[in-house]
Amino acid sequence: MLGMSKSIFRRLLYSFLATVLLGLGISGILISMSAREYFYDAKKEELLRMAKNVNAAILERPRVDKKLLDILAEKDQTYDTRIWLFNQEGKIVATSMKDEVFTGKSVAVSIADNVLQGKNAVTELQIEGLDDPMLSVSIPWGEGEKVYGGIILHAPIEGIERTIAQMRETILWATLFGVLLSTAMVSYLSWSISRPLRTIERTATEIGRGNYAERVQVNTSDEINDLAQTINTMAEKLEKVEQERHHLEQVRNDFLANVSHELRTPLTAIQGFLEALQDGLVEEEEARQKYYAVMYSETMQVNRLVDDLMDLMKLENNEVTLAKFPVDVSDLLNKIAFSFHPEAEEKGISLEVDVQGELPKIYADRDRVAQILKNLVKNALKFTEEGEIRLSAVAEEQWVRIQVTDTGVGISSDDLHRIWERFFKVDRGRSKKNKGTGLGLAIVKELVELHDGKCSVHSVPGEGSTFTVWLPNVAVYRQAT
């Protein structure tokens, strides 16, 4: 992460420095060039204006005399500019300063020719004996056809160059300040970016170690915050997946433990009885028949367990196909009650059917609905010692509500939400007396949901339980199709 922070800092620094240096550098060059050109043009125009004033002052003096020299000296003092006069041969005949060493020397032929033809000339001269270059302008001396020669004004351009140098120095200091400011800004930006990224990295590392409860906490409102929220969302999903995995693992372990427990009990009994019979410990025929009956009962228990497991696996894997037809609920309830009537009589329990009015038919698989009701009645008979079991049905909006009510031991509120789980038994202490696989209600729930129905239970310990199943009637199916 430190390497990434350095990399971010380096990239931002290079980007800012390149922007500052290129921007200020190019701007400085363009500004200095434009300023130099502007100052030169301004100085040139000023010198031309001065030269015209000098020409106006000596226009009537074609010859060099003391009065003309005095005028030149006066203009020199006024304008602070050197003034030369040259004749038609291009030789310097007068200057604004006394004892000028350039008197008698010739000016450049090109300048003399242009001026004698009535044109102005501007040039930058390096005069012998002077270190600084001079800006020079030349105009005709005279007017119209009367041109006596030329007037040259020249002034040092040291001030212009000094001004340009100061501008360049100012730009250089501005560039240096920009570099320092850029470094400070880059340091802050790098810190503001790398700090939440380090937080994200630490959180991602914890998530990678399996700590899915870890969350990223950043106080930004930019793309880094979006990244943090994405990681948090991913962590939440991973946490849910991990919880689901643990749940499935627990379910698998419980399933194996329950299957082992349910199989061990009957198999242990069968094994014990077989060993007793094999060793000849049971000599009387009546006792042997009792042993055979118990072994047969335990074998049937194992067979029921296997059948229920196969049914439940098929339901959970969506391998069960329903053969749906209109089913008369009243007729089905009466047949279920008739089939369980002998067992209820044997326990002294009243088994009643209560159907109010004419019921609409349900669109369902008759055999599977019968399986639902049989499981509920078996469950009621198992936990009811006396009283009655009532099977009722009533039309309720788009449903037919079927209820199986008993006056049995009831279910505690702690166990009520778990009764639909596989192998869950409300009272383990009664499991020897009331044998069962613990899969009946789980199968009921799966079958009801497969019919697009719903189920619930209400129970009061010591008073009894009511299991309610809602199944859609035929009219609902017809509207849907």
Automatic annotation (TrEMBL):
Catalysis: reaction(s): ATP + protein L-histidine = ADP + protein N-phospho-L-histidine
Principal EC category: transferase
| Residues in coiled coil | 224-258
Any idea where this protein resides?
Cell membrane; Membrane raft
Keyword annotations for this protein? ATP-binding, Cell membrane, Coiled coil, Kinase, Membrane, Nucleotide-binding, Phosphoprotein, Transferase, Transmembrane, Transmembrane helix, Two-component regulatory system
Q: What cellular component GO annotations does this protein have? A: membrane raft; plasma membrane
Q: Which residues form the Histidine kinase domain?
A: 258-475
E.C. no:
2.7.13.3
- GO MF, any single term: ATP binding
Where does the source fall among the domains of life?
Bacteria
Q: Which residues cross the membrane?
A: 12-35, 171-191
Tell me which Gene3D superfamilies the record gives. Answer: 1.10.287.130, 6.10.340.10, Histidine kinase-like ATPase, C-terminal domain
Lipid bilayer topology: Multi-pass membrane protein
- List, alphabetically, the Pfam families matched: HAMP, HATPase_c, HisKA
Which positions fall inside the HAMP domain? 191-243
Q: What PANTHER family would the database entry show?
A: SENSOR HISTIDINE KINASE CPXA
- What is the protein name stated in its UniProt record? histidine kinase
> Which organism's genome codes for this protein?
Brevibacillus invocatus
